[in-house]
Amino acid sequence: MVSLLELTLQLSRASDMVSPELNNHQRQVAYIAYNLGEELNFDKKKLNEVSVAGILHDVGGLSMQERISVLKFEAINPHKHARIGWLLLKDYREFAEIARIIKFHHVDWDYGAGLRYEGEVVMQESHLIHLADRIATLISHEDKIINQVDRIIKKIKSTSGRKFNPEYVQAFEQLKDKEFFWYDLESISSGRNFYKKIKFKDQNLDIDELIGITKLFARVIDFRSNFTAVHSEGVSAVAKRLAQHQGCDELTCKKIQAAGYVHDIGKLTVSKEILEKPAALTKAEFSIMKEHTYHTYVLLCQVKGLEEINEYASMHHERLDGSGYPFKLKREELSLGARIMAVADIFTALSENRPYRKGMKKEEVVEILERMAADNKIDAEVVKTLINNYHDVTEIRIKSQKKARIRYNDFAKLLV
Ligand SMILES: [Fe+2]
Ligand SMILES: [Fe+2]
Ligand SMILES: [Fe+2]
């Protein structure tokens, strides 16, 4: 059993790692929102929801530039990433409410008129996130947070009514005198674990539910760029099919499927600017890119019950002769699931169409895979299984990626 909240926190962490400037922004906002909610006597359900909305509120900021630009107190055009966040999350049942809160988290109070925006109802919770978010953006990394309280409260009060619900600003005024609040914010990544207090849907996920949420994660990971839009869907489907052909039991196949969905979660730490760079990457950029599997590993490590899936997901750039990265593992240290994932990743990357090139033909793909197997880079047996079932595996890949592409196109249409 895996906790939905623990998993969600890792998605949040990953997306805040894209720049040190973000400094755990989403977790800070979640913490502020939770405490404001307590001051306002929100019931438990509302408290949990504003916390989770805080954790994910900027997940729709697809580029690093966009993430950083909305850290300015008077952000310009802040609604786009809020809307994208809503789009990414809304279809997953457990996040439906959260998505609605996120959609309007930059709507000003406007002396009460902000209860509606573009003909839609804006939830109170959105206004709470709005205030929490702006408090967080006023925090400077230059000084202890506790020394900044007067400045922050002054700024918030000066815009009360126009930007924020005055009732919420009042709650903030009560909260500001509690030292622990500021200390906790200062040590958000290492301090007391306030998440223990959140009971999001009380939910522990079984393997099928886990597949549902990791599939959603794949969308958040892949949809940042047209270049990667359907990659994880393909890898997941191919890896699962290869595992079936290798004779793995059903549970293992499902774990491999889930691992495929999140194998590139560490890529959330790589900026869209690098992901989509039209020219060759510089050495520094390449080393950022290369780090992604390390981050996948560290992020998934934080989630209890995900050990095996992590093992399958994070080792996809290791090579049997120890020449891969980042752990330099050798054949005997790599599980079958990890060896399958490496083949699935390479096969999918070579075969899939990208906006700037067509996927390779069978002959070319087979030649590359066979050479890599002969060089003791990837598992020869898994490669043989793939070649023996080439048509079947390819069909599965195309089918899953076609579906994902339709979803992506719908999504991309709404971005403009
Ligand atoms: Fe935002
Ligand atoms: Fe934010
Ligand atoms: Fe990768």
Write the layout of secondary structure elements.
Blueprint: E1 2-3, H1 4-16, H2 25-39, H3 44-56, H4 64-69, H5 79-89, H6 96-103, E2 116-117, E3 120-121, H7 124-138, H8 149-158, H9 166-175, H10 179-186, E4 204-205, H11 207-222, H12 231-245, H13 250-262, H14 272-275, H15 283-290, H16 292-301, H17 307-314, H18 336-351, H19 362-374, H20 380-388, H21 390-415
Antiparallel strand pairs: 1-4, 2-3
The structure holds fe (ii) ion (3 copies).
Number of domains: 2
CATH fold group of the largest domain:
Hypothetical protein af1432
Look at the structure and name the CATH superfamily of the largest domain: Hypothetical protein af1432
- Calculate the terminal CA-CA distance, rounded to whole Å: 39 Å
Write down the overall mean pLDDT.
94
Placed side by side, the strands forming the largest sheet appear as: 1-4
Q: Tally the helices: what do you get? A: 21
Rg to the nearest angstrom?
Answer: 23 Å
What share of residues are in beta strands? under 5%
Overall shape: elongated
CATH architecture of the largest domain: Orthogonal Bundle
Subunit organisation of the chains: single chain
Class by alpha and beta content? mainly alpha
Point out poorly predicted stretches: none
Q: Briefly, what CATH class of the largest domain?
A: Mainly Alpha
